[in-house]
Each structure stands twice: as C-alpha cells, then as structure tokens.
Amino acid sequence: MSNSARPVTSVAHGLQLGADGGKASNHPLTVNPPTRSIPSPAEVARLAASIAPPSGWRLIVAKISHLWLVALLLLIWEFASIVAVRSSPQIGVMLPPPTAIYSAAKELLARGELVPNIVASLTRVLTAVGVAAAIGVPLGLIMGWTPRFRVAIDPLIEFIRPIPPLAWIPLSILWFGIGNVQVDFIIFLAAFFPIVLSSMAGARDVDVYLLRAGLSMGARRGDLFRTVVFPAALPMVFTGLRVGLGIGWMALVAGELVAAPSGLGYMINNARTLFRSDIILLGMVLIGVLGLVLDIVIRQISRYLMPWYNRQ
To answer: Does residue 50 sit within a domain?
Structure first.
C-alpha cells in the first residue's frame, strides 16, 4: 500500500471502531464509484427532437400560435358589432364586423379593383423608400463619420425635417402634377429623415475601443470605415429603414387621399364618399398587413446580414 493511502485506511478503521463499539473490523471502508446509465437510442432520439427547432408544419403552427391576441380581438370585434347592430342599425355603418370587411374584399376582387390598388400603393412605397434609403444611408454614414461634414449639413437637414410631408402636397402637385411622382415625392420626404438620422447615429456612436483596436492593427481610415464603422452602424441603419417604412405608409395614404388616380388611399377616399365603411376598414387592414409583411422582410434581411448582432 502506498503512503498516500495510509491516512485514508486509518480513518476508515477509526470509523469502523466507533461503529462496532471499539472492535476493529477486518474490512476497510470502501466507497463505490457512482454508476452512469447509458441512454438508449430511443431516448437519445427523443432528446434530440425536443432540442431541435421545429420544422415544416410544426414551424408554421408555432408562428400562427403567436397570433392568438389578434384572433381574440377579431372575435371580440365581431361579437360587439353584432350585439350593437341589434340595438342600433347605424352601428353597422359606423363599425362593420370583420365578416362584412371580408365580404367587401370578395366584392372588390370580383370587380377587379382590389389587386390594382394594392399593387399601385406597394409600388409607390417600395420606390420612394428605396430612393430614400439609397440617398439617406450613405449621407447619414458620411455625416456620422466626418464631423466637419456633419456640422455643415446638419442645420439644413434640421431646418427641413420639422416641415410635415403633408405641407409639401400643394407644391408637389404644382411641380409634378397628379400621379405617381407626386405621391412618391411625399413618401420620400417622410422616409428620408429617419433613415438619415439613424444612419448618422450608428456611424457616430461606434465603440471607441473598436476604433482603437483597428488603428492599433494598422488599419487606414478607409479600411477602418469598411471593416469597423459600417458593420457597427448596420443595426441603426436597419432601425432607420423600419421606421422610415412605417412613416412612408402614413404619407402614402395622405398623398393618395389628396391626389392620386389609384391606390389604397384612393380606394379609402372613394369609399368615404359612398359611406362604405367596410371598404374603408378593408383599406386600413390591407395597409397594416402590407406594412407588417415588409417589416418582417427587413428583419429577416437584417438577421442574414448581421448574424453576429442577432446572437447577442
């Protein structure tokens, strides 16, 4: 027996002496190591299935299950409208139920009026927000990265930014007439400034330690902007795109309500003259759905371009 095992043996014999009333035991105290059970292949498969993310129809069900609040609100809306119509028939005109909105959608689809209006509004928003992003993102990044340029151009932007896009509608009609260009100009003004300011904040507020690390590794100013500043500013850039897109939808309705030959805002305005509140609510629902879909698309693009950011 080695020297390192003697103290353990003496302690073991001491414990046996106390347990047997002072009589030594011939069997030293032994400690059995814990046994580990090996899981069966079926248990391993069940554990892997529980850890793995859902796929196929399970993923669809998981996504739909998050819409329980929307479904609950629709049920409450339908029930409240039915009960209110029984007490006052005017409620049916003021707040029609979701089933009436669905019937209005079927009616407009049968007449071939719904899809062209959706396409017209969607095209205007994507065109105007795309132009605003193409100009606003580089401008904002340069403003955030170059203090002298920011000091020179910031007063002009802050002077134009508080002017509501609706105030430009009369001038836009005089400049561009009634049509797509006029509405695109209003949407551009609404989406441009959030994109510029968010991009500027993203480039300006880059972590100083990241910049020092790049400089210590010998990076030049252009390399530092491309490898450090631009990736660090991407989260704020996408935030500005999402905000600008939402404000762009608001400006779209305003522009189409005043002067537009087609679109969801044009459809809402025509329904107002005919007291068709179901078509008005249909246009509002479609604007919300389209805005939600575009926002989801932007978030998916940001997750693809910024996997390092979404893991934080």
So the answer is: no
Report the chain's mean pLDDT, rounded to a whole number: 80
Q: What tokens appear for 115 in the block? A: 């899809």
Q: Is residue 3 part of a domain?
A: no
pLDDT higher than threshold 90 for residue 134: yes
Counting the structural domains of the chain, the total is 1
Residues 193 and 139: their CA atoms lie apart, in Å, by: 11
Instruction: Single out the residue of 181, 293, 195, 199 nearest to residue 248, CA to CA.
Output: 195
Q: In terms of residue numbers, what domain contains 165? A: 126-305
Give the pLDDT score at 290: 93
Residue 244 included in any domain? yes
Residue 95 lies in a domain: no
Burial class, 270, CB count within 10 angstroms (exposed 0-12 / middle 13-18 / buried 19+):
middle
Mean pLDDT, range 36-42, rounded to an integer: 65
Give the global pTM: 0.72
